[in-house]
Design brief:
Oligomer: single chain
Number of strands: 5
Radius of gyration: 16 Å
Helix content: 25-40%
Number of helices: 4
Strand content: 15-25%
CATH class: Alpha Beta
Strand order of the largest sheet: 1-2-3-4-5
CATH superfamily: Gcn5-related N-acetyltransferase (GNAT)
CATH architecture: 3-Layer(aba) Sandwich
Order of helices and strands: EHHEEEHEH
Largest sheet: 5 strands, mixed
Structural class: alpha+beta
């Protein structure tokens, strides 16, 4: 079962949210403080949304954080899947159910599209299986200062 956490429920799940977000977004340890402060602020103000998948015993199985945004050029509303994290292997059926849930949420919010960034090839394949397509590639060159 997937549920959307209310901002008042975020503190109860904060330890799990931190672990999932740092891992999924691959945040460097020296940036954890700033990253987590911004994330917490965003979740408590409902600018970001947190969804959790629980089993029948109400045990946390997976977590997803989304952000609503508006394209500055087209003025179209979109939903960014910022964090997708699971504490166990996700079967294709569960992924499809989660995708259907988030798709309905996205429609309810009157968004035109869903997007995400990931370095995880398994996630790429899952996304393609439900209709996502690659839109761009991001290249980074680190410079020593």
């Amino acid at each position: 079962m997937v549920i959307k956490l209310l901002p008042s429920q975020i503190p109860m799940f904060w330890e799990a949210i931190k672990r999932a977000a740092i891992s999924a977004d691959e945040v460097n340890k020296e940036n954890w403080g700033v990253y987590l402060n911004e994330l917490l602020h965003s979740l408590l103000n409902d600018r970001s949304q947190c969804f959790v998948r629980l089993n029948e015993e109400k045990r946390l199985l997976a977590l997803m954080i989304t952000r609503l945004s508006v394209d500055k050029i087209t003025n179209e509303k979109g939903l960014s899947l910022q964090v997708l994290y699971s504490w166990k292997h996700v079967e294709d059926k569960e992924w499809q159910d989660d995708y259907n849930f988030i798709k309905e949420f996205t429609k309810h919010e009157k968004c035109k599209y869903i997007f995400f960034e990931s370095r995880n090839p398994r996630l790429w394949k899952l996304a393609e299986s439900v209709g996502f397509r690659e839109n761009l590639r991001k290249f980074v060159l680190s410079l020593e200062v």
